[in-house]
């Protein structure tokens, strides 16, 4: 079974530029998460989708971050304009669960963003 | 804010020794999970323990949960160099269908 795919793996941009990350979850997984992991810290949830609907985006900086999950499959996370503090690894995870507890999350390898 | 806090932040031991990491959390949970992250990689699920369970084993891993103290521990027995990684606890709070991760413990196994 193919895992969670993310691209690009690495991205370097200047501040105030824009960037987009793509995630393709495991086939059939209904729930998709985007986490931000700053160096030396644990992952912080940015947004959670169930199918193509947003369940939780309470920690997403909506003035600069946006995310969508069209057709309930793959997802894109966009940052515009980027700030220095956005330098982090952006992790995508998926879960087959729709109801009940969260269960195990399956993570991709992450997209490492450096903002100069 | 982070729900779980791991202790210690960093741990360095000799190969073959046991490694113990602790996690404390603040609010009632449905379950608690442990994940491993190798440098530059994504997180890998290790084990899930539900709020009504006290202990769980998986190979060389042993997880305990004390809901009265709001704490959990992860024990890795007979450590190997390949166990070098960061370990994170993640909690699913009651009423919130999402995982909140702690800051992690960086484990180094010296050959």
Summarize the structure.
Chain A has strands at residues 5-7, 10-13, 19-24, 31-37, 44-50, 53-56, 65-68, 75-79, 88-95, 106-107, 111-115. By secondary structure, chain A is an all-beta fold.
Walk me through the structure.
The complex is a heterodimer of chains A (116) and B (111). Chain A has 116 residues and is mostly beta strands. Chain A is built from no helices and 11 strands. Chain A has strands at residues 5-7, 10-13, 19-24, 31-37, 44-50, 53-56, 65-68, 75-79, 88-95, 106-107, 111-115. The N and C termini of chain B lie far apart (37 Å). Chain B is built from no helices and 11 strands. In chain B, strands 2, 4, 5, 9, 10 and 11 form a 6-stranded mixed beta sheet that branches. The mean pLDDT of chain B is 93. At the A-B interface, strand 5 and strand 10 of A face strand 4, strand 5 and strand 10 of B.
Largest sheet of chain A: 7 strands, mixed
User: What is the count of β-strands of chain A?
Assistant: 11
Determine the structural class of chain A based on helices, strands and strand pairing: mainly beta
Q: Count of DSSP helices of chain A?
A: 0
* Largest protein-protein interface: A-B, 25 and 24 residues
Note the run of SSEs of chain B as H and E.
EEEEEEEEEEE
Reconstruct the topology from this structure.
The complex is a heterodimer of chains A (116) and B (111).
Chain A (H helix, E strand, L loop, with lengths): L4 E3 L2 E4 L5 E6 L6 E7 L6 E7 L2 E4 L8 E4 L6 E5 L8 E8 L10 E2 L3 E5 L1
Parallel strand pairs in A: 2-11
Antiparallel strand pairs in A: 1-3, 3-8, 4-5, 4-9, 5-6, 7-8, 9-10, 9-11
Chain B lengths: L4 E3 L2 E5 L4 E6 L4 E9 L5 E8 L4 E4 L2 E6 L4 E6 L8 E9 L5 E3 L3 E6 L1
Parallel strand pairs in B: 2-11
Antiparallel strand pairs in B: 1-3, 3-8, 4-5, 4-9, 6-7, 7-8, 9-10, 9-11
